[in-house]
Amino acid sequence: MFENVPMAFLIGGLICVIGQLIMDLTPFVVTPAHILVGYVTTGVIISAIGLYEPLVNLAGAGATVPLSGFGHALAQGAIQGVTSKGLIGAFSGGLEATATGVAIAIISGFTIATIFNPKG
Amino acid sequence: MDEQKLIDNINKRKKLLTDIQFNTDIEIQNLTEEMQKDYQRVVCLENKAQKMKRKTLRAIRKEIEEQQKLLKQYEQIRYRSMVLKVMPKVPVIKNVIAAFIVGGIICSIGQIILNAFTIKGFTDVQAAAGTSGILVFLGALLTGLGIYDELGKFAGAGSIVPITGFANSITSPALEFKREGYIYGIGAKVFVIAGPVLLYGTLASIIVGLIFFITL
Amino acid sequence: MTINKRLGKHTINFATPISISAFASVVGPLEKKGPLGDYFQYTMEDNYDGEMSWEKSEQKMMQHALEIALAKRGYLSKDLDYFLAGDLLNQIICANFTARSLGVPFFGLYGACSTLVEGLILGSIIIDGGFGERVGVAASSHHETAERQLRFPTEMVVQRPMTAQWTVTGSGAYILEKNIGDVVITQGVVGKILDMGMANASDLGSAMAPAAADTIVQYFKDTQRNPQDIDLIVTGDLGNIGRILCEELVLQQGYDISKNFSDCGVLIYDPSQDTHAGGSGCGCSASVLAGYLIPKLIEGSLNSIFIVGTGALLSPTSTQQGETIPSIAHGVVIQRK
Lengths: 120, 216, 337
Prior knowledge:
Number of domains of chain A: 1
Largest interface: A-B, 81 and 74 residues
Number of helices of chain C: 10
Largest sheet of chain C: 12 strands, mixed
Helix content of chain C: 25-40%
Oligomer: heterotrimer
Strand content of chain A: under 5%
CATH topology of the largest domain in chain C: Peroxisomal Thiolase, Chain A, domain 1
C-alpha cells in the first residue's frame, strides 16, 4: 500500500519547490493568488499538449494533489467532453470534471466559516 | 502662439533634463518652478479649448508631466541602489527545503488516501475525487482551527500549491468576512482568491476544448 | 519679548511649551511579550479582548487609552476642549467612534503612521494659539484589522517577506495643556511628502526613510542645533531596514545621528518574535512614546527626545494600480521641564 508513496513525495515536493523559487527569486511581488492561478493555467496547457498524463502515471497523487493537477483535470475534462459531446463538451467538459472538487471546497469552506472565528 | 511657446519650452528643457545629474540644486529648483508655470498655463488654456485643440493641449500637458517625473527620477534611481544594498537576503535554501518537505508530505498523505480508496475497490475516478474531497476538507478544517496559516509561514509554496492551499484560499476569506454578514461578507468574499483560479482555469480549459474540437 | 513662532520653513517653536499632563498606552498580547512589555499600562487579553470584531476591539483600545489618561488627572471627557485622533482603518472609524462616545469637539486625522505626531503638533498649536485649554490626542492600530484591510485575510497562507513589518496592536492617548506635569513639547516639525519611487507595499521602511531623513535634517537646519543637543532621536516605525537607510541619508546631509538614533518599530519587538523588519502602525509610536519614552523623560534618564512619526500614504487601491508610495514624517521635540 505504501510502495508508490516515495515517488508521490518526491514529485509533489518538487512541484511545490518550483512555486517557492518563483516567489523568492522573481523581482515581482508574487502573492498566493498569482501562484494558484499560474499553476492551474499552466497545468491546463501542459496537460493539453499531453505532458501531464505521464507525470500522473509516474507520481500519482504527487502530480494530482498540486493545483496543476486541477488544471490537468480541467483540460482532460474538456478534451473528453469534445470526444463524447462535440462542441458542447468543449464548454462543459472542464467544469464537469472538476465539479465535485469545487463543490466540496465550497461546502467545507462555508461550513467551517460558520462554525469557527478567525484567530488572527 | 501660446501653444508654440509651450512646445518651445518643452524642447528647451529636454536637453537640460538629459544630463540632470550635472545640474545644481538651484537649477533644479528653477526647472521645477518653470514647469509648474507651464503646467498652470496649459491647464487654463485647456479649459477654454474645444475638440482637436483640446487634444493637442492635453498632449502638451502630458509631456510636461513626463518631464516633471523625469526630474525626480535621478534622485529615485540613486535611492533605489542604496536600498538594494541593505535589502535582507531571502532565505531561499531554507524556504525551498521547507516547501519540498511539507509539499511532499501533503502529496504523500494524498497518495495514501488514494491507495486506500483503490484497495476498497473504488474506480480511479471515484478514488481521485474522494482523495481531493478529503484533502480539501482537511485544508478547510485546519484553516478554521488557525493552524494552516501558521504552517504556511514556514512552508510557503509547500502549503499553497497543494489542493489544501486552494481550500485555504476559499475558507480564509469566508472566515475573515463573516462579520460583514452572510451575503456581502462570506458570500461576496469567499471567491476573492479562488474566483480568479476558477475563471482562468475554466477559460483555459474551454480554449483547449475548442482547439481540440477544431483540430479533431 | 516676542518669540519667533516659526523657524525656517518647517519648524514650529511654541511660545510657551505645551505640557503633556497625562498619557496612557494600551497594547495587545504580542507587544506585552516584547522587550517593552512591562512598561505598558493596559494589555488586552487576546486580539478580541471580549469584543465581537477586531474593529470593535481596536476602537475600545483607543477609548481605554484615553480614559486611563483622563483618569490620571481626574478629568472627564467634558473637561476636554478638543479631541484629535486617527487610525489606519477606512474613514478612520476607530477615531470617529471613540469621539462619538466623548461628545467633545473633534478633528479626525489621517497621516497613516504619522497620525500621532501630527495630532501632537496640531494639539499644541491649538493650545499655543489660545483656542483651547486642554486637548486630547490619540492614535491606534490593530494587527488583524490592518491585515484584513490592507493585505490578506488573516488565516490565509502567506509567507511574509523579510522586509515586511508587523502592524502593532496598540494605542496611545495624551492630554495636552499648559503648565501641568513634568514633560513639555517645545517644538514641532511639519514634514512634506516625499516619494522616492518605491512601490513595494511589503517594504514600507525603505519607502518612508527619505521622508524621515528629510524631516530630521530640516529640523537641524531650521534650528541650527546638532544631533548631540538631543538625547534621543526616535522615528515612529521605520523598522530595521528603514532605520539603516534613514541614518545613512541623514549622514549624507552632514549630520551624524548614529549615537542617539532609534526607532519605535525596532524597540517594541524582540527579533525572536518573528516580526521580520519590526513593528509599524499608528499604535507603534503611540504606545512606545506613552509607555516607554515619556516615563524615561520623567524619571530623568533622558532629558529630551525628538520623535519623528513616519507615515506611508498608500491604499490597497493605489498599490493594485501600481502607484508608488508617497511618505510623510512629522516630528516633535519633547523634553523634561
